[in-house]
Amino acid sequence: MNKLIKMGVISLVTVSLAGGTFGTAATLSDNYTVSAAKHHVKNIDNGALTTGYGEDSLKPGYYKTDVEFTNQDTWSNKKGHKLVAVKSSQQDDILLFATKKQANKLQDGTKATVTLHAKSEKIDGEQQTDFYITKLNITSGGTSAKAKAKQAHQKLIDALSAKKDELNQSSQQSVGVDVINEMNEVVKHSYDVYLDPAAIDGNDTEVKALITSINTALVHTAKDNGDEAPSMEYYVGNMKVAVNKMFDPDQVKMKN
Predict the structure, then answer these.
(1) Residues 132, 74, 129, 138: what is their CA dihedral angle, to the nearest 10 degrees?
(2) What residue ranges of the chain have pLDDT lower than 70?
(3) DSSP helix/strand/coil, 133
(4) Alpha helices, DSSP H, located in the chain
(5) Are 121 and 186 in contact (CB under 8 A)?
(6) What b/e string do you get for 15-41 counting C-beta neighbours within 10 Å, with b at 16 or more?
(7) What is the pTM (predicted TM-score) of this model?
(8) In degrees, to the nearest 5, what angle opens at C-alpha 82 toward C-alphas 41 and 22?
(9) Going by DSSP bridges, is the β-strand pair 231-236/190-195 parallel, antiparallel, or unpaired?
(10) What are 23-53's pLDDT values in tens digits?
(11) What is the pLDDT of residue 87?
């Protein structure tokens, strides 16, 4: 019996892409893996990666090459694997199968040395080669769950800063001063917002309405960037004048 079949159950999936059918890929169940170390691995140039039909396909086996991942928006899930794209000197993109754990470390521009298992499948009577990443060594541009979380948090901070600038621009046009002097993240999901006394002028009802409007703009920006329950505290000088509600952050509670 074939050694590969002894190692695990092979399931077949058909992969469809915008450009047509990419191929029928053989994947091993999650409980089994193929170790490239047990096979002869041939070093190849990136240009040798071809997923064409017949004689144009790279022969089945194990290969090692340097790649750069690209076009992340086109990546798709395929039964325990993710179909990812790398640049090729021979054509626009080459498609590789990565485990979800491997794919989570990748982004556009990630460069890596990969060991690939080239597997030949017969599609509509013609042979096609599909590539599975058996070993991934990122050399630059990789990310981790921690790094992704950091990037997402920075995107949130940048969005709030842009919204502050937008509110100030509107305030400059209406009253001639910035409505927000300063905005600081005290701890994650918690912010102190310092308002300009000249912009916060009026009776209690008018002041609450203005702060509620500012709060709504900031909270919706935070929610749009992944922070579902931002805590906002509003100050005029050193005096806390309002906070938003914990379980309903769109609503503002005024301080005496």
Answers:
(1) -40
(2) 1-39, 50-57, 90-92, 123, 142-147
(3) strand
(4) 3-7, 100-103, 145-175, 204-224
(5) no
(6) beeeeeebbebbbbeeeeebebeeeeb
(7) 0.50
(8) 80
(9) parallel
(10) 333 333 333 344 444 568 989 887 777 655 5
(11) 87
